[in-house]
Amino acid sequence: MKKAHEFDLNSPEIMEYPYDFYKAIHRDNARAVEVQGVGHWIGRMDDIKEITKNTSIFSNSYFSEGGPLPTGVSGKPLEKDVKEIFDSGPKVVNALWTTDPPKHTLHRKLVNKAFTGKWVRSMEPKIRDIANGLIDSFIDEGKTDFIKDYAVYVPMIVIAEALGMSREDAKQFKHWSDDILSGNLDVLDHRARLRVAKSFVEANNHFEATIDERRKCPADDLITSLATAEVEGKSLDTSEVLPIVNTLMLAGNETTTNLIGNAMKLLFEYPEAMYDISHDYNLIPGFIDEVMRFEAPVQCLYRVVTEDTEIGDVKISKDSSIMLGWGTAGRDPKYFDNPDIFDIYRSNSSQNVGFGFGPHICVGLGLAKAEAKIAFETLFDRLKDIELDKNSDLSHIPTFATRGYKKLNLQFKNNN
């Protein structure tokens, strides 16, 4: 039986199925497992909760004063041509998710003023309209790539419109989002860095122009809220607003796509859950919580260590990176009985940390849950006899930081 330290998280096989690695972490009580070239993986729920609260030693401000540039997580110096692309774009500084208290507290208050429960509830009719419109586009075919045609576009259109982009611009928005997310979470080679830098600058050029326009002519969207709001008598300048917009673009898009896609695939693995939630929509919130525990769309996020420290008996040196394994914590047997069993009736699924924990818990978690809930309500309203095409490729996007399917080919009948 392999020990936790014997797994190579960078290998395609472990990226595709990391759960034996997670089991080994809990079996061995392994508090910090080195991932070659990246940092140490932290998987126990107790350790994750303690670390997220200790922002003085385990900092979210892991970018230099040059700002949060998506250069990959290898730590290698920027190539000259990549640096030139980044330098050509608008200035960005550390803000929100790449800061620690007290600056983070100020930024969080500002963003919370935009992401209120009232605002999320006001978005529900629009989410339902978007979901129905997407189903209209493929319902007569009797089949669809669920990821490409539905799971991608429900959250993407919602957050794109909220950030001042039109539905027609959604594909461009998706392209930027995918590249920038990869630059924040993955190991990149030179070619990938060039691609990511180009998308980052293009996105920020667009949003900088939108921010300037909203300050002159306010609109009913998140960009206006961020560009004009004040907290404690302070407002943000554009270099601070831009990275916050980027954070909302990523958190409100790719991660929710993976949540919806992972949830759909689990329903085929557990057909009794499919039957139950399709006949009782009140079960969907608990179902979403269990998906977040069992197969979190974001498997880890990073922290940087500000001084030499120890986690258990593992010494971790200053400036090293650690990865907080949200997905591993969801399988922690100390917190969840029979953690490798998917159970929509689990009484404590809401204790998952799939949306993070502590000061940096996902600001858009209410919106993500609403999108996923409405996505499945609308799906079951409109479709019946939904089946997975057994010949489809069910491989995951090759990364250990996020977890989502490349595609899910479905067949169905019209429920109308």
Question: What attributes does this structure have?
Answer:
five-stranded mixed β-sheet; alpha+beta; Cytochrome p450; 9% strand; 416 residues
Topology (SSEs and partners):
Elements lengths: L11 H5 L2 H10 L4 E3 L3 E4 L2 H9 L4 E2 L20 H9 L14 H12 L2 H22 L4 E3 H6 L1 H10 L7 H16 L4 H27 L5 H7 L9 H14 L2 H16 L1 H9 L4 H11 L6 E5 L3 E3 L2 E3 L4 E4 L1 H4 L35 H18 E6 L20 E6 L2
Parallel strand pairs: 2-8
Antiparallel strand pairs: 1-2, 3-5, 4-10, 5-8, 6-7, 9-10
Helix pairs in contact: 4-10, 6-8, 6-17, 9-10, 10-11, 10-12, 13-14, 13-15, 13-17
Tell me about this structure.
By secondary structure, the chain is α+β, with helices and mostly antiparallel strands. The chain has a single domain (61-298, 354-414), classed as Cytochrome P450 (Cytochrome p450), CATH 1.10.630.10. 49% of the residues lie in helices and 9% in strands.
The name of the CATH topology is: Cytochrome p450
Helix count? 17
Number of domains: 1
Radius of gyration: 21 Å
Amino-to-carboxy terminus distance: 52 Å
**In percent terms, what proportion of residues is strand?**
5-15%
Instruction: Profile the largest sheet.
Output: 5 strands, mixed
- Strand order, largest beta sheet: 1-2-8-5-3
- DSSP E strands, number: 10
Structural category is alpha+beta
Mean pLDDT over all positions: 91
Order of helical and strand elements: HHEEHEHHHEHHHHHHHHHEEEEHHEE
Q: Overall 3D geometry? A: globular
CATH H level: which superfamily?
Cytochrome P450
CATH architecture: Orthogonal Bundle
CATH class wording: Mainly Alpha
Low-confidence residue ranges: none
